[in-house]
Amino acid sequence: MKIRDGAVANRPIYVALAVTVEGRRDILGLWAGDGGEGAKHWMHILTEIKNRGVNDVLMLVCDGLKGLPDAVETVWPRTVVQTCVVHLLRNSFRYAARQDWDKIAKVLKPVYTAATEEAALDRFAEFADAWGKKYPAIVRLWENAWEEFTPFLRFDTEIRRIVCTTNAIESVNARIRRVVKARGHFPNEQAALKCVYMAIMSLDPTGKGQARWTMRWKTALNAFDITFDGRLSAARQ
């Protein structure tokens, strides 16, 4: 979003959305950045979240934020860092001509739906052979993200489904984008954060959306508890 603070600049606002052990959505915080955030920045944020009572995180899904995996490893050593597959696909399309999007999506789908990491690597090699010459930047994008892309391939289908869909965070982002677009720009960082906060608070005024969300997460929570050796059950005690 555009923040004026001396000179107008496009700056990111980072939103941390969590799902609790009961399956409830919770916005853990909002932070303004400058686009050049590294491990030190994320360490400060994650330590703040932990100090507020988040003692364990099973999986953290993010979009290629530099330095974040290292910070997660320090604050929550057992946490699995997973690249958001939807954002990985969207970022791939940025490097391709519009008329090739459907073809690229078709060839990439066997990569993220593969039964194993080995199978995914084979399918990715096929993609690289077919499109690497025309779009080397897409191949490089996936190679750079591979370490954080593959963890979910070891998990239950319910967990995979969550990683491959972004309904929760996308509904938040869509609301924020509408408000920011209507406003245009902001005089300072605090004004921007206040606007985003008010947009988020207006998402589900009746609580009905939260109730539906919690019910839909029941199956996934069972899968998480089994996959992560009872850490979810332990947190409820």
From TrEMBL:
UniProt keyword Ligase, yes or no: no
GO function term, MF aspect, one: transposase activity
Keywords associated with the record: DNA recombination, DNA-binding, Transposable element, Transposition
Entry superkingdom: Bacteria
Name of one Pfam family that matches: Transposase_mut
Biological-process GO terms, alphabetical: DNA transposition
Family membership noted in the UniProt record: Belongs to the transposase mutator family.
Physiological role: Required for the transposition of the insertion element.
Name under which the protein is recorded: Mutator family transposase
Organism: Streptomyces sp. CMC78
